[in-house]
Protein: Acyl-CoA dehydrogenase
Organism: Streptomyces humidus
Amino acid sequence: MDFTFTEEQQAAAEAARGVCAGVAPDAVPSPALTRGAVADTFDRALWDRLAAADLLSLLLDEESGGAGLDAVALCLVLRESAKVLARVPLLEHSAALAAVQADGGPEARSALLARAGRGEVVLTVAANGRTGHDPAELAVTARLEHGDDADTHTGTGTGTGSGDGAGGTGGGSWVLDGVQTAVPWAYDADFTLVPARTGDDRSVLALVPREHQGVVLAEQISTTGERLGELRLESVRIPARDVITADGAWERLRALLATGTCALALGLGERVLRMTGDYTSKREQFGHPIASFQAVAVQTADRYIDLRAMEVTLWQAAWRIASGAPGALPASGDVAVAKIWASDGVRRIVQTAQHLHGGFGADADYPLHRYHAWAKHLELSLGPAAAHEEALGDLLAAHPLG
């Protein structure tokens, strides 16, 4: 398998590296030293720079003002953003845009894509379900009511006018009820893409405005100190044109979110291992840098192996998503393998870093503390490796190799 990046993908990574160069992770207060969230909103200045560099529209086609790139390019950019703990909804925004572009109706695409690609409209995704452990699509129910216009009930929406729904459902509105927990950037996003389950056991995706009749937000604080939202939907009416009903849309969005999270874990892990190498090469005991001690060298070598495994499994998953290439297993198998390595790998990397930093690792004023908090958040977002191993086993049983 040739994972050589194209010139366009490399250019996107280089642009992200330049945009993120001025971000200082230690300039943000530590979660351990603040009450509540570390900030009221995300890094708007960085968001504007990402928009100016056309990095918010990577996955959009040229007609919508985008670069027409793929999941591999997005993961390269996310990898760079994670190295500086960039406080922006880049993953959720990009994944939601991709879903609207691929499976949304013409009116939703016309109303949102170009504006969101320029950063004027912010999107996020509710992907954690009711508790963070149950499937997200089962946390909200959706039922279609024909013949009425949701805008007459709420006075909100994308402002696309009447017409066919995103999945070809025609007029009317969808009524949503349920709860999604730990929605990232819920207080900042203009729209949240919410998966829901219909009465005939299908998954749909609804674009829910932040300020909308029946939408209630309750503040939650993440491990990283960022502000999340518990999203309660109480008979929320969404125009059919703003609901994606295409088969497999939620599965494709979920795979992209998971793979993007693996890219964040990789970027964070690379930065932490570099911090550890710099520290151990300068910290001396018995007149020698501790990096020269065999016990230290063995531990850092093991973590380097973790990083390389995280990297190769990430690109395999991103390539499968981007290319749609057939394989012995569905693409979800590659995503599961990437999640196994990312979840366990990022935890092992920060634990080793904390150990080798000694007392500095426990200092909440030292940047490693924030990296550890972000790593734990990513690990929890990915879920336990054992669960992904079980899912992979089920796939292997259903699709025997050989």
About this structure: The mean pLDDT is 91. The beta strands are 123-125, 140-145, 173-184, 191-198, 203-209, 215-221, 227-239, 243-244, 284-285, 288-289. The longest strand covers residues 227-239.
